[in-house]
Amino acid sequence: MKKITQIAMTICFALNLSFAQQEKGITGETNWLDNWTSFKKEKADYGEPTHILTGTITEDTHLEKKHVYMLVGNVFVADSSALTIDAGTVIIGDFNSRASLVITKGSKIIAEGTDTDPIIFTSNRSRKREGDWGGIVILGDGPTNRFGNSSVANLFPNLSAAFYEHLNFGGDNSDDNSGVLKYVRIEYAGKRIGTGTYFNGLTLAGVGNATTISNIMVSYSGGNSFEFWGGDLRLDQLVSFNASSIDFEFNYGTLSSINNSLAVRSPYASGNNGSRCMQVLSFDDKEEVDFSKPATNVTAQNITLINRTDDLNGAIEKGLVKEALYVGENASLDMNKSVISGFNPAVKFAEGVKINQENLERIKFSEMYFNNCNGNIYVDNNPNNEDLENWYGNSAFFNVYSKGFDAETFIGVFDAKKPDFRLRINKIIATNDVGDND
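That's the T9SS C-terminal target domain-containing protein sequence above. Prediction below.
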């Protein structure tokens, strides 16, 4: 009887361990990427635009699926007005005017697609390329750690001073409601602004937690896919694909949680600096922030960061691959149940991050799956990272290290039509639902 009990306990322990492993990375009973995402160069012909959007929108405006709209120049939604977009609507960004859409502070965007009928923002060129048009900027009333008024004027260097009032963001309202973005694709955005400077696919600045940000895919961005400055954000099921620069950047005191989200990189799509998946900073310049205000604090759960290539070593030798995740000074990150696969190394801390108890408690990694990375967690420009390796390698954190091929690690990573980036361990898909098999 005692022996049977021991066997039963062993089996239960093994099952619990197996199911715990399946919870890492993006999760779901089914592949939630199906239907609304696209992982190939867009060839769809949406026809000629029937309506033009340009200048400043100062009254509530409704975009209908039956029309195709074209953004021309910098389009502002202002004066507390709302831009409502029906599911399935196509909005085209004009290449010649490098169009962009800006939702100003106090205004709203209500763009709620469905998984079978997403809203699509794309380029008007017949042969689409990264950076064809600007992107989407949403400005809210949430807090930042910057001194005084905050502005995104740096994204619009040639804009007339008369428009500067439309570029301000930030305040004291963590509950700011800038609207809804759900089941939306943003393609070929990220125009070049100047030497080494680019627009982002989606910029959220001072946006509060009453705003819905879910099921958004940014693909083929010439700059960052997603950029978050300040605000208090709840982010769910975001996808970045083949960005030239960073997939997810958090900065300027943003208090964000990001869940069940994916970044897929290719070393041959990245910019010359071999850009990273995620960057967590509190500032670009110390002189511009108030250290008495809360610093950037990001909670990330069930995230998959993957560098998809069949020749990782060759790409590393050519300098095309760098770390997946970078954490700057004064920034906090709590990441768990996530997957980082195919980077050089997995994580880097800024050189100024001292390895002491305070910082180790502020930057947490637990129940992680580090796969096929050329090194795990380093401090930039520090050849001796033994303390970090020992700390995060402690069994108390339940971190796992592996050297598996992508085809064996993920369910369908190379499927051109419907890729599946959920984790495969012992042929059981990554899911929170016990008992699900592929």
